[in-house]
Specification:
mainly alpha; flat
Length: 135
């Protein structure tokens, strides 16, 4: 079918397919890297256990992403209801969830000790969390 021109209607809208491919590339690349580490003889048994946990967590996030992408194709206002959300609390939650991955790469996530930020924004908590986590 050389020379065929694609329209937005093809594959449910080509831009959606491109977005899905782009969004799934990151978790799939991470899963591949972690799987390669499992095959490395220099990786300790304890590290292999952490890597296996990270693979499970990343794959679960990627599966949730596919659900979100499918839902966004049928976007309706009630799909992502807005509510008052503390963005700092979401960032702290993401830091907790990614702590294991940071440890695998010799990194540490810490928060400055300052007054508690209780400023709220209007957002969808789940969607904002996934955007910030890049999942």
């Amino acid at each position: 079918m050389a020379g065929k021109e694609w329209s937005d209607a093809d594959f449910g809208g080509l831009p959606s397919v491109l977005v899905a491919a782009h969004e799934l590339k990151t978790p799939l690349a991470l899963i591949r890297q972690l799987a390669l580490l499992l095959d490395d003889d220099l990786t300790s048994s304890a590290d292999k256990t952490q890597i296996q946990q990270r693979i499970i967590q990343t794959s679960e996030q990627a599966l949730q992403l596919t659900t979100d992408l499918a839902n966004s194709a049928n976007l309706t206002p009630s799909l992502f209801p807005l509510e008052p959300v503390n963005p700092l609390a979401i960032c702290q939650q993401i830091a907790t969830e990614t702590k294991l991955n940071a440890t695998l790469y010799g990194r540490k996530i810490s928060w400055p000790k300052s007054r508690r930020n209780s400023q709220l924004i209007l957002a969808n908590r789940t969607l904002l969390g996934r955007i910030l986590a890049n999942f």
